[in-house]
Design a protein that fits this description.
The complex is a heterodimer.
Chain A: H1 3-16, E1 26-27, H2 34-56, H3 58-64, H4 68-78, H5 93-99, H6 107-123, H7 133-137, E2 148-151, E3 156-162, H8 164-172, E4 182-194, E5 197-203, H9 205-215, H10 220-230, H11 236-249, E6 253-257
Antiparallel strand pairs in A: 2-6, 3-4, 4-5
Helix pairs in contact in A: 2-4, 3-6, 3-8, 5-6, 6-8, 9-10, 10-11
Chain B: E1 14-17, H1 23-28, E2 35-39, H2 49-60, E3 63-66, H3 80-93, E4 98-101, H4 122-139, E5 144-146, E6 153-154, H5 161-172, E7 175-179, H6 180-190, H7 194-199, E8 206-211, E9 215-216, E10 221-222, H8 231-244, E11 248-251, H9 260-281
Parallel strand pairs in B: 1-2, 1-11, 2-3, 3-4, 4-5, 5-7, 7-8, 8-11
Antiparallel strand pairs in B: 9-10
Classes of the chains: A alpha+beta, B alpha/beta.
């Protein structure tokens, strides 16, 4: 290790430390002592990461309330940023909350972070085309069975056992913070970007299963079978047609792929 | 070895840092902003709104790219993934130039997201010069390095900051983004003469000026970019224009964002101060 490398490592540790640690390599003068000089970097480090995480995780901030900064400090200490973009420091926050005490016993925290991060990553995900209704109309009747309906690649499904999505909606609308509720069964939430607007909505298990099957590349005939297993007799195709139209209107599908491709 | 384009970038006039708060207004209203500087990392993204806006600005303004995570003084190997994305963005928007800071941002994979000063030693000088050359070959263009505000003092410094910066520029054949506010802040924090700093910088290397405000801490000035350019920085800017002539200048504001009109007024002030001085210096 070069002298420069060793110095940078010691200085980095001192900047990241939660308590001030003197470094022999640093000196003070008549203007300011070494400790108060280093303190500017120490305070700046934590403040910058906190601010960036606060911007990316408004739902989590709302759920955590006044415990938010303490939570962020634990994350900052456990998981320093390794990305060139400050925004991406938040990539591991949901996983951290899933496993770290005391939050692992309170799923709303990790779920709030997952929702915020899904919204954040959809925001600048790669641009993809979205098919319109005319593309559906152009499919020849004999091609439907083998047709594959490919959803947007940035589409994310979350399984939420709490109503954290209501917290996000309230934050975005600058409305009052709702009461936290736990659901008897987890609910699927879909997060995607329609053109340049990030959207999210709850989906019923049957719709989630159909969309997941489409994402796996299963043909339309297989989706019909799946729908038939869940719909009242004779209504599967009509139900699927309705869903299909909703998916197209919401910009959820990027491509129709003919069979045999 | 790839070719490094060492043609001098053009003079762009008076610009602003592109910030989200001013997106619409900059496109909608007539104003006197000649060019825009973007923070490179904000647009090194796969897609979505940031790149849509960027294309709109690209169609209307000359752009310069200004990065914060190159870590030219860092001792980890240069991040090839980062350089590839930086290069891709530069190919996409064809900026007038690409700049970053004379600093390091972290080691062992960590990014402190701060502009950490280097100890101004011969070892650090050799290290930085080699890395600047490497980056310039990778990007096939000369880069600009900006002097940072600094607060700590290294016991074993062998060179003054301006000597270090000038030597890096000469030996690596790169250009300089001279942040006038940072010169002032560091001069106050370390007790050196800001004019001596300017005198130590080679005139032919300076491609851009930054102007910004700062905050008064207990004993030290802190480079916060959250306030108007203060009088002593304007005074130092005048001295810089006298020495360096007409240099592309921009106002850098990152926090406590004022109405755009306030930044435009600052830009006009820079124009009024610099125009006669630059003419006299030419």
């Amino acid at each position: 290790m070069s002298e420069l490398q060793a110095l940078q490592l010691r200085l980095q540790r001192a900047v990241m430390a939660s308590a001030a640690t003197p470094l022999a390599e640093l000196v003070g003068d008549g203007i300011a002592d070494a400790k108060s000089r280093l303190a500017i970097y120490r305070h700046g480090y934590r403040a910058r990461l906190r601010e960036a995480l606060g911007n990316e995780f408004p739902t989590l901030a709302s759920v955590a309330g006044r415990r938010f900064n303490a939570l962020l400090d634990r994350y900052i200490d456990a998981c320093p940023s390794e990305h060139y973009n400050l925004r991406w420091h938040g990539a591991g926050l949901a996983a951290f909350l899933r496993y770290a005490l005391p939050w692992r016993d309170r799923p709303a925290f990790a779920e709030a972070a997952e929702l915020d991060w899904a919204i954040s990553t959809c925001f600048d995900a790669a641009d993809e085309p979205a098919i319109g209704a005319e593309a559906l109309a152009a499919v020849a009747p004999q091609d439907w069975a083998e047709l594959r309906l490919l959803p947007q690649q940035h589409l994310q499904w979350l399984a939420l056992s709490t109503n954290v999505d209501a917290f996000r909606t309230a934050v975005d609308a600058a409305a009052a913070r709702p009461h936290l509720r736990r659901r008897a069964r987890p609910r699927r939430l879909l997060v995607w970007r329609q053109e340049l607007t990030v959207r999210y909505r709850a989906v019923e298990p049957a719709e989630a299963a159909l969309l997941a099957a489409a994402a796996r590349g299963e043909p339309f005939a297989a989706l019909c079978e799946l729908a038939a297993a869940d719909a009242p007799p004779g209504q599967a195709v009509a139900r699927l047609a309705t869903l299909l139209r909703q998916w197209v209107d919401a910009g959820l599908l990027r491509e129709l792929q003919a069979g045999g491709m | 070895m790839s070719h490094v384009d060492n043609e001098r970038p053009p003079y762009l006039g008076y610009g602003l840092g592109l910030r989200v708060e001013y997106y619409q207004e900059l496109l909608d209203r007539p104003h006197s902003v000649d060019w825009l500087e973007i923070v490179s990392e904000n647009y090194m993204v796969p897609g979505g709104l940031p790149l849509v806006w960027l294309e709109r600005f690209r169609a209307r303004f000359p752009l310069a790219m200004h990065g914060v995570s190159l870590s030219i003084g860092g001792t980890d190997p240069l991040d090839e993934g980062y350089l590839a994305r930086l290069d891709a963005l530069a190919r996409r928007i064809e900026p007038a130039w690409v700049s970053d800071h004379l600093c390091w941002t972290g080691v062992q994979g960590v990014n402190l997201h701060d502009l950490m000063p280097l100890p101004y030693t011969e070892e650090a000088l050799d290290h930085v010069v080699a890395r600047v050359r490497q980056v310039q070959e990778r990007l096939r263009r000369r880069i600009l390095l900006e002097n940072v505000s600094s607060y700590i003092r290294f016991a074993d410094a062998q060179l003054e900051e301006w000597e270090f910066l000038a030597e890096v520029a000469r030996r690596a054949d790169c250009l300089i983004l001279l942040d006038i506010n940072n010169v002032y802040v560091s001069a106050r924090n370390h007790g050196f003469d800001a004019l001596r700093y300017l005198d130590g910088i080679p005139v032919e290397r300076v491609q851009q000026f930054h102007l910004a405000g700062h905050e008064h801490g207990e004993a030290l000035l802190v480079d916060t970019h959250d306030a108007p350019v203060p009088t002593p920085v304007w005074t130092l800017y005048e001295a810089a224009v006298r020495r360096f002539g007409a240099v592309s200048t921009m106002i850098e504001r990152d926090d406590h964002m004022p109405p755009l009109s306030e930044l435009l007024a600052e830009l006009e002030h820079a124009r009024r101060l610099a125009a006669p001085l630059a003419k006299a210096a030419a």
